[in-house]
Amino acid sequence: MNESYFYLKLEIHQLHMSYKNEKRRVRVLLPKNYDKDESEHYPVVYMHDGQNVFYSSESFSGYSWKVIPAIKQNLDLPRMIVVGIDNGGQDRIDEYTPWKITESPLPEDIELGGRGAEFAEFVMTVVKPFIDKQYRTKSDKVHTAMIGSSLGGNISAFMGIEYKDQIGGLGIFSLANWITSKAFDSYIARKELEPEQRVYIQVGTQEGDDTDRKLMYGNMKQAYIDGSLIYYKQLLKGSVPIDNIHLNIFADEEHNERAWAKHLPECLRFLSEKWS
Questions:
Q1: Who is most buried in 29, 90, 212, 234, counting CB within 10 A?
Q2: Is 199 in a helix, a strand, or coil?
């Protein structure tokens, strides 16, 4: 199925998730003149929470990442393929969290988290190979980026370490690492990081929402800022050069697509600096 936006085409696929025995919608936004320039190959940017990526009408917050306007209005950006991978709805928190959530005010009989490694494997062994086979991609590490916000930022940060040989750029928006901070801290501390990776990190000073409140003690706004700063330091300690990390803390910005959309062009600009 194709949908046309003047010159951008959005293609829709349903890919099989074997570990859940279900299909997951994956949408692919192709660059201008993709069909005409038959010798061109393109970098690929994968985005989590695919429902929120392209249309405000289906976005959780009623406002999308505005990917199509971002690409059409920022003519300095290189041409790229953008892949939006839908989240699992009710299972989103499990899929985007590699570890069980143990540091929260939840009742003990509620189990959340812990399926992140399986979901990451689906993205890297099903989605990426499908995209590389179906489309003219530059499939190498340098030209592969992963972007996510909140829990989508958590799974992106995890995948950036776990699949560092295949992912060269990360866009980490409003990282919600407080949810399993001890597990993530011990994970990143014992892993060798990829110094060539480029990482864009963004957080606002008014982060946190009602959902977070059910999962967390203490000051949510500070937890978001701390989480991004700690992650930034962990990358530096892991030998990622300071020039490869772009950290922004934005005054008064909240935890929503409106804030993330505003800075997407800047993120794409930074991640694409080493694209050929």
A1: 29
A2: strand
Mean pLDDT calculated for residue range 176-198? 95
Encoding tokens for residue 200? 């864009």
- Please give the mean pLDDT across all residues of the chain: 91
pLDDT of 115-168, one tens digit each?
A: 899 999 999 999 999 999 999 999 999 999 999 999 999 999 999 999 999 999
Closest alpha carbon to 223 in 237, 214, 236, 212: 212
Domain 2-271: CATH architecture, name and number where available: 3-Layer(aba) Sandwich (3.40)
Q: Is 120 exposed, middle or buried (0-12, 13-18, 19+ CB in 10 A)?
A: buried
The torsion angle over the Cα atoms of residues 55, 169, 221 and 179, rounded to 10 degrees, is: 100
The answer to whether 155 and 119 have CB atoms below 8 angstroms apart is: yes
- The pair phi, psi for residue 190, each rounded to 5°, is -100, 5
